[in-house]
TrEMBL record:
Gene3D superfamilies: 3.40.50.360. Signal peptide: none annotated. This is NrdI protein. It comes from the Bacteria. It comes from Enterococcus avium ATCC 14025.
Amino acid sequence: MNILYISISGNTRAFVKRLEAYAVEQHQLDPKNPLIGSKEISENSPFEIESAPFFTFVPTYLEGGNGVDSGDTEILTEVMREYLEYEDNFKHCLGVVGSGNKNFNYQYCLTAKQYSEAFKFPFLADYELRGTAADCERVYHILKENSLN
């Protein structure tokens, strides 16, 4: 399974690395369990054409508004949106996983929800900040299930 992610504060990177380690453990228990490969997208990333299916992991960074009726603007993660738009890379995305701070109420994982709506791929899962061990297990199984479809 392939993951494209963007990490501003390091939380998404830490979660993806723990998810990769969990996948190794699961693969060792049963070789039918898939491993995870990941690629971090940043301002310095060269844009490439993606040809293999992947999942997108994106944190939430917004400016202005409340995300409900007064609007908001995506900040800091725009390069992921641009990467997905590049040569229609989004067409290979199997779904998006969002993260954020639950203190943000409705805006929690709003960037991932907006990507789901804009690119027409499913919002699969969420986790708060760096996630927990239970989040890693839950998200791994959701990715595994959605990579088989």
